[in-house]
Design brief:
Number of strands: 8
Keywords: Metal-binding, Signal, Transport
CATH class of the largest domain: Alpha Beta
CATH superfamily of the largest domain: Nitrogenase molybdenum iron protein domain
Pfam families: ZnuA
Helix content: 40-55%
Structural class: alpha/beta
Oligomer: single chain
Family: Belongs to the bacterial solute-binding protein 9 family.
Main location: other
Shape: globular
Protein name: Zinc ABC transporter substrate-binding protein
């Protein structure tokens, strides 16, 4: 579905410019003696920043919500930043392939979230919605920074432990939904909140043909679209999980149908919204889903 990525592609140039600005602003840390961390996106950058505290500097390369990590090309400034980094934190699994290309053949210290995922049998790449994997990533960031900066290793470990304690609040919300409303049927415009739905015990009833087309960035066949609409008109699902960052005519129509039929719409995003941190963001997502599935 090429059109659904129009919003992302429109902002790609701005995302590169934003990343360059962030890098320039952080260039003073080169002489600070602090470890330098580069994260592929603002999601992983926010998590790394919590662990780093004031003992290390963190730069996120993609901060623009319209930019698409799948198609991002590193600028010369970004490449230099990656080259100089003491630690690189990225999603992996092909999601932010520009990082994998940039570090190929180099001896770099990295934390790859996809490699740290809870279940290696699950190939969904949107790992920031999986708080158990995020907890593992936090530990790996703390350990890696401790290796680079032994004097502050205890601080990195303590901040990771505090961060994981706060993650447990998100798990408590989804765990309660899973216990009280197991198997509640839902529909997604794309498989973005896959791990959130798993944690909540929800059953994703999105037709395989529709989901396959979304993942392959092609237009779903009319029959697949019709089957997806039927789930909403027939009120066979409790909620529509809706990615507001990749809207097109098909997804907007699905939202309209959901609202007309009294099906709750749960808005999700792919990147960290402005003005909130990772914990606040995922807590809000979990609460919204819980409210829809009750």
């Amino acid at each position: 579905m090429k059109s659904r990525f129009a919003l992302k592609f429109a902002g790609l140039a701005l995302g590169v410019a934003t990343a360059a600005t962030l890098t320039a602003c952080g260039s003073g840390s080169d002489d600070s003696g602090k470890p330098e961390v580069v994260a592929s996106t603002n999601v992983w950058g926010d998590i790394a920043s919590v662990i780093a505290g004031s003992d290390a500097t963190v730069t996120a390369l993609i901060t623009d919500p319209a930019a698409d990590p799948h198609s991002h090309e590193t600028s010369a400034v970004e490449s230099a930043k990656i080259s100089d980094a003491d630690l690189i934190v990225y999603n992996g699994g092909g999601y932010d392939e520009f990082i994998e290309k940039a570090i190929e053949g180099r001896d770099k210290r990295t934390v790859d979230a996809f490699a740290a995922r809870t279940s290696t049998s699950d190939e969904n790449e949107h790992l920031w919605y999986d708080v158990t994997t995020v907890a593992t990533v936090a530990d790996r960031i703390a350990a890696a920074l401790g290796e680079v900066d032994a004097d502050h290793a205890a601080g990195y470990t303590e901040r990771a432990a505090d961060f994981k304690a706060r993650l447990s609040g998100i798990s408590a919300i989804t765990g309660k939904v899973a216990a009280e409303h197991p198997g509640t049927p839902v529909l997604q415009t794309e498989p973005l909140a896959h791990y959130l739905l798993l944690a909540a015990g929800a059953r994703d009833r999105t037709p395989a043909e529709f989901q396959e087309a979304i993942e392959q960035e092609t237009d779903p066949a009319p029959a697949a679209v019709a089957a997806t609409r039927d789930l909403l008109t027939g009120k066979q699902v409790r909620a529509l999980v809706y990615n507001v960052q990749t809207q097109d005519k098909i997804t907007r129509d699905l939202r309209d149908i959901a609202e007309k039929n009294g099906v709750a719409v749960v808005e999700v995003t792919e990147t960290l919204p402005e003005g909130v941190d990772y914990i606040q963001w995922q807590t809000k997502n979990a609460e919204a889903l819980a409210s829809a599935l009750r």
